[in-house]
Amino acid sequence: MRERKYLEYLAVAALLGTFFGYFAVKVWDIDFWWHIAAGKNILETGAIPGADPFGVYDAANVWGQTVLKSQWLGQVMLYEIYRRFDLDGVILLRAAVLTLCLAIVYWRCRIGAIASLFSLPVIALAGMAILPHTGERPQLFSFLYLSLLFLLLDGYMRNGRRWLLYCIPPVLLLWSNTHAGSVLGVVALGLFGSGLLLEGRRSGTPLLTPAVKPVLAVIALSAVAMLCTPNGYTTIHRIIFVENVFFAGDNPLRDRVSEYAYPWTLWPATRYYWIFIGVTVASLPGFSSRAHWKQGIVVVSIALISLTGYRYIPLFVLLAAPYVAASLNRMLGRISLPAVAVNLSAMLIALALLVYGYRQGQVFQHGMQERRFPAGAVAFIKANQLGGRIFNTMNWGGYLTWQLPNTATVFIDGRMLDPRRLVAYTHILWVTPEGRQFFKQADFDLALVPYGNIISGEQYPVVSYLLNHPDWRVVYRDEMGYLFARRTQ
To answer: Within this chain, do residues 310 and 191 fall inside the same structural domain, yes or no?
Structure first.
């Protein structure tokens, strides 16, 4: 028995080590730069901003106030890691956080006494599903906090140790000041509590048993903790507003920002998520017993939420994976394979994938993905002391904000403190009559534009417009795109 467990631990270590390598890729997230710029501003001013510190947006709205304030602690942590350890420190942080999330999935499987035949494949599938979500942003901490929250909850339900339960509100307090994803954590807790009450009602026992009361009390305290932020209720207001607009179908964020897109629109990046959804659906009969209704309610509800936005995929996968594995274990427990063979196979496959990734240069990377950011144009702007108001694509706004803090004011970036800016931005890119008017009114000094969309390959008409405009000239060009300057500058 001891040797079998030892081999299982080796298999898990190989699996986690392999995923660590694949999570440790170059910095690529376009929003990373404005997040660390915000963290730097918070530390330098000693205050959480109530207005856009970079002068880009009028943030006097629910959306703007929420984005400015809801991620302050996560932004400070990212900036401190970057300041002390540069980009490689950020890469290691990201890989460590995501690997720890998968380790917690395994830990929760251990709490549920799930056979490695079911736990290891589900962990591997969960890792593949979250692999595209390696962005360097405060949302990373949401993945970790949610995983930790349900580790504490599962531990209490299994062992009855109340101190585990009492750790949940402090986790929610930290989470709420790190990223607005804490709202989903409270929703998941509320669903779990509803399942507990339903379980008691179906069994004919009193609803508020000694085991249920502390859980409900902790859920209530967690909801209060979620409001102990600079935003308070504003965060909830904003999420309700955004989702209502999405369902109404008239919000440009759904079409223009991938994290808000429906998962089926981002195939094949979401293929492992859809496999996980299929496995989850196949596991549903295992939640039919009275003792497992609460887990089933949480899994189904969060799965439905994940269908509304790409950004919710990791939260669903990391929360549901141990429950799905446990359900499969209950349904298919009669299948008997030697544990030694299962663990050894998992270990060898993981190590083979790690070696393959190393030879292909896909693991343990350094620095940033240069082709995602206009480093050459920025160097030219600095060398020639250019500046002023700059028209730019949204993907480059955060990088420009970080690199040119005192010389240029960008037109748009991933913060989207005022989503209406997207309307003018789209019109300018496609040079509609309204776009020409927006462009003229903005009185830009510079324009930094790529040749086209990096995903679809579409050429932006604004490039031809500026190339043929008598008031604009090309001052720099490289493989990324054009830098235009107004002739009167």
So the answer is: yes
